[in-house]
Amino acid sequence: MSHPLYFLCPHCKEEDTLAGSRCRNCGVPIQFQGLNLIVDGKLFTPKVYYAWLENQIRVVASGSSWKENREDLKVLRSSDPGVLYQFRRHIEFSGYRRWFRRRLEVPEKLARGRLHLLAEEARFQAENGRLWRWPLPQFTCITTDGHYFQFKLQGEPAFQIHFKQESPLKYELVFRRWLREYYARQGREPVEFQPHLRFQLPRPPGPLLVASTQSAAPTPPWERLVLRLVRLLVRLVLKPWLRLEVAGRENWHRGLPGVVIANHQSALDPFILGAYVDAEVAFLTKSSSFAHPVPRLFLRLVRGLPTTRYQIDAPVIGLVRTMLSRGQRVGIFPEGERTWSGHLRPFKLGTVRLLMALGQPIFPVYFRGAFDFWPRWRHFPRRARVRLTIGAPFCLLPGRPVAEQQAFLKAQFRENICSK
User: Fold this and answer.
1) In angstroms, how far is CA 108 from the centroid of its own chain?
2) To 10 degrees, what angle do helices 221-238 and 293-301 make?
3) Which residues pair with 331 in a beta bridge?
4) Alpha helix stretches (DSSP H) within 188-220
5) Which residues in 95-120 belong to E strands, given as ranges?
6) What predicted TM-score, i.e. pTM, was given to this entire model?
7) What is the pLDDT of residues 22-67, one digit of tens each?
8) In the CATH hierarchy, which fold is given to the domain comprising 64-184?
9) At 97, is the secondary structure helix, strand, or coil?
């Protein structure tokens, strides 16, 4: 299988050729050194490589043609075999203390086959002969979820594809470029691809969504005991891997409601915060994590709030309001997903607008080093030193432009993540 991140050779720009000690296409020597890639003596950090990759990836792959019904079609690229899923099965989830109920979409396997990109549509040709056709203008979201390439079209449940040999990131970047080139011919420029394809900045929010809150209800003794045991277990598991430093505890103000926001560097970010700072933060969690019964039970205990990553999720606003009105803190990763390269991703415009509309104190948490601990593209963690800094709480200004508040948040995080 090709590397999840390093799948394009910087020397010959061929895909899926970096393996062993040389590029299989041009023969240039390569070496993986920690999280970095060395190609012909030149060092690429994940941050440098990802920025280069975004600029160099192309929609058109090495020439291929696909024949269907005796008609030769110009195919821009064809994938290796993959499995297609669609979020058309539903489950009912009852949240923490049954404070809310939500109907969740979970993926269901459809077929094995190959993905083909044409000039203005994508097709999935199944091994059993079935064909899915997706016109380019109908795409409303492009993203990745774990090892899956995920997308949504107008009026249909979301799809995802698990490629056996290829990186899902490759197809996210290819589809983004494909859509940019298509809309550029119409004089339009997407500003965001996830959770919804957006062409303009959102307006500032109207009246505040949360007018008042009440004191948090006391946690039952049995629940406090279980949370202590979970925190202890997480610490024991992390101890051989993690050298953690926590700074700014005086800014936490435990017991006060508000919104916790953090940069998302590793899969265990919320667990690190819960184990070493506060286990009673209700984090927004992608809905696919609730697909199986055991994780669903655990996420209910730790107050997980299910949200979809492939569409604007209006119901989750109600969940956030419910938790805040009951004196609970809500945790949000404004980037919307884990970073691929360790650098800060753009904060989602809809999330910034929600933070403005809530009018609640914001408790910033800055992770530094968690990407070195467990990058998104590694199967297992590695030993690392992590610093978790709790910043002074603040509020956003609801009447200001969303882009201005987005820039303010990003500047705050850049300053604190990069500071020594």
Assistant:
1) 21
2) 110
3) 260, 283
4) none
5) 101-117
6) 0.93
7) 999 999 999 999 999 999 999 999 999 999 999 999 999 854 444 4
8) PH-domain like (2.30.29)
9) helix
